[in-house]
Each structure stands twice: as C-alpha cells, then as structure tokens.
Amino acid sequence: MHTPTRRTLLSASIMAAGSGLLGACSGSGSSSETGPHPGTVQGSGTADGGHRPFVPKGPEGYVNPSDPEVLAAERKRGTGPVRTFRLTAAETTCDVGGRSFRTWTYSDRLPGREIRVTQGDILDLTLANRLPVATTLHSHGVRLRCDMDGVPGLTQPGIKPGEEFRYRFAVSYPGTYLLHSHEGMQPDRGLYAPLIVDDPKEP
C-alpha cells in the first residue's frame, strides 16, 4: 500500500483548491525578466527610473536590516542555489463557474502561480506592480530578514504603480506558506499565491 508523503498531500490540496480557477483568468500582466536590486524599488515612481533603497531605521542601539549581524544570520539560514521567480500584480478577468468578473491577481492566475523551492535555497522574487494603487508582497509564516517582510511603511515603501520590488532571502524551514499582499483588502481580491519549501531529506 502506498503511503503519501507530506509533500504529496500538500501539493494535492493546493491543486484541488485552485483547479477551478487556474487558467480561467486573462489579462496583460506580462513583463520582462529583469528586476531591481534586492530591497530596492525600481520604476517610473523613482526620480530617474532607477533604484530607490529603503532601510528602515530602529531606535538607537537596535540592529538594523543592513547591519553585519543580519547579514551573518542570513548566511546561516541558507547558501544554496538561487531560485528566481517573477510575479506581476495586475487587474484581470476571471471566470468561475461560467461567471466572469474583474479582479486583481498575480500573473493572471487565481490563486497565483506556485512558487516552489527547497530548504536552504535563496529565493529571488521580483514583484511588478501593474495595479492602479500601491502594493507589497508578504511571505506569511516565513522566517526572514526584516527588510524582505513586505509590510508597507514599516519594512519597505509601498510599491507604486509601474514600479518593481525585488525580494531576496534564504529559505531555511520546509513547509507550505502563503504569499500575499499586505495592503488593505488586496488579498481578498485575489493577490495571494502558495509558497512551497520542500524538505530535501523527505523522499
């Protein structure tokens, strides 16, 4: 008798949840493969279309995201291969049960495309904003450096329309997580996607 692994069960549940929606959306969320430097905003919202770094400052004496302690901790989390992905937040038309409606999705899919990496990998994910309002991307439940957490006004500026933000961090714990916008009710409109971190020790 075949005993399914955790990986098999999680994959099946996510696919089942999204099977009626995947491929049922259409829009114009395509964009190039290049992205800004990690932790910076790039696009028409900057003074010259270049990079605008954002380093949140803590109280005097506290550790900041750019300090050596944070960089050392990041290296301990993982030094594996870099896995590069790109998501585009844009308005699109979806069809559910024969009923069409306009909403916001990642790369014209609801839920957004599966982002899959292995424990110890470096996740390099660029989010392009093609919405009429600002957005961000939060990796729910993932242990990561502060400036990659996707909380607007606290760990990064909101990604304005036409801009891009590059998230890059080591993924140190296997499991199934949720990527979603951290702006208002945007996740309810469809801005969410699964993040699956495989355990290399699991068969």
Question: Could you explain how this protein is built, in words?
Answer:
It is a single chain. By secondary structure, the chain is mainly beta. The chain has one domain: Immunoglobulin-like, CATH 2.60.40. 13% of the residues lie in helices and 34% in strands. It is built from 3 helices and 11 strands, in the order αβββαβββββββαβ. Strands 1, 2, 3, 4, 5, 7 and 9 form a 7-stranded mixed beta sheet that branches. Strands 6-11-10-8 form a 4-stranded mixed beta sheet. The radius of gyration is 18 Å and the shape is globular.
Topology diagram in text:
Elements: H1 6-18, E1 25-27, E2 40-43, E3 51-53, H2 68-77, E4 82-96, E5 99-106, E6 115-118, E7 122-130, E8 138-140, E9 163-170, E10 175-180, H3 186-189, E11 192-198
What is the general shape? globular
The separation of the N and C termini measures 16 Å
Radius of gyration: 18 Å
Largest sheet: 7 strands, mixed
Please give the CATH architecture.
Answer: Sandwich
CATH overall fold name = Immunoglobulin-like
What is the total domain count? 1
CATH class: Mainly Beta
Average pLDDT taken over every residue: 78
Extract low-pLDDT stretches.
6-17, 29-33, 44-52
